Amino acid sequence: MKNKIILVSGDPNSINSEIIYKSWKKLKNSLKKRIFVISNTRLLIQQFKKLKYPMKVVSINDFNQKIKGNSLKVLNVDVAFKNPFKVNKKNSSKFIINCLNYAHKLALNNNSIGIVNCPINKNLLKKDKIGVTEFLANKCNIRKDSEVMLIYNKKLAVSPVTTHIDLKDVSKKINIPLIVNKVVKINSWYLQNFKKKPKIGILGLNPHNGELRKYSEEKKKIIPAILKLKKLKINAFGPLVADTIFMNWEDYDVIVGMYHDQVLTPFKTIFKFNAINITLGLKYFRASPDHGTAIGLIGKNKANYFSLLNSINFLNSFKNEVC
Asked: Smallest Cα–Cα separation from 296: which of 2, 13, 1?
């Protein structure tokens, strides 16, 4: 049975140690025993100390090592630092990449449910226009663009067809196979995990769907993709108009947009921190909070931990499933 959860502490210059501590206090003891944190023991101890959090941290060497009590179990990754919340960019980048590589290796283990990673500054992953979604897809040797970013709440999920690319490149990037493949994966995930055929709304790209002009992306790419999806017996609807769809979001299980902020901005306005970021198409399950590193909140004890807690609990709910 898959029962272990890998928690990557993420960016050291962040609110991550705060949300880990706050989430840890809310978890059941039986779940705490199955969580293994990939981080640096000394770094976490120093951060908890600076935040005045009474967290017990223990360094372990083996993914299968059992520890009595409910201490935070840390699989150690080296990082050089002087100030625990001001690790320089070079060291932070090396540390984060090594943590993700370690997590990927462990996640391929049959004893693991999957990975929850805390927020990471994408600039530290070195490659241009790449986030954790793309980083882990590459590690899994998944064909480029076949992974899916799904921002999930039980009432609604959203997914951008293109993820971390500049707005000027979106029109060139989207095409019929890309839209179809991503929606098919979303549909399959809902069927597999919820035994439900989701109602999926697909947005156009242009204001007012480009008035459906002959050479618009709606006419050339999005409508043909929707027709293909309907032939596959998928409940796909559209192209829907982006400026009004979130006034009636209750009509859909999933809303698929053409670019990142087209769906994430209104979704986060509605659900705030009550959602998680899931990557579909990997060789294992991966989830993360739906927010960033929030460096402006470091040390203020004001960070909202709900999304991390939801990520852990959601992953745990799939311990007997194949995701």
From this structure: 13
Structural contact between residues 137 and 72, judged by C-beta atoms closer than 8 angstroms: no
Three-class secondary structure assignment of the chain: CCCEEEEECCCCCCCHHHHHHHHHHHCCHHHHCCEEEEECHHHHHHHHHHHCCCCCEEEECCCCCCCCCCCEEEEECCCCCCCCCCCCHHHHHHHHHHHHHHHHHHHCCCCEEEEEECCCCHHHHCCCCCCHHHHHHHHCCCCCCCCEEEEEECCEEEEECCCCCCHHHHHHHCCHHHHHHHHHHHHHHHHHHHCCCCCEEEECCCHHHHHHCCCCHHHHHHHHHHHHHHHCCCCEEEEECCCCHHHCHHHCCEEEECCHHHHHHHHHHHHCCCCEEEEECCCCEEEEECCCCCHHHCCCCCCCCHHHHHHHHHHHHCCCCCC
Cα 87–chain centre separation: 24
Residue of 266, 277, 294, 282 lying closest to 323 (CA atoms):
282
pLDDT in the model for residue 322? 39
Residues in the chain: 323
pLDDT tens digits, 90-114: 999 999 999 999 999 999 876 788 9
Matching CATH topology for 1-142+282-323 and 145-278?
yes
Q: Find how far residue 151's CA is from the centre of its chain.
A: 7
**What's this model's pTM, rounded to 2 decimal places?**
0.90
Phi and psi for 140 in degrees, rounded to 5?
-85, 5
Report the range of poorest mean pLDDT among 96-100, 130-134, 185-189, 244-248.
Answer: 130-134
Look up the CATH architecture of domain 145-278: 3-Layer(aba) Sandwich (3.40)
- In this structure, CATH architecture of domain 1-142+282-323: 3-Layer(aba) Sandwich (3.40)
Q: What is the pLDDT of residue 167?
A: 94
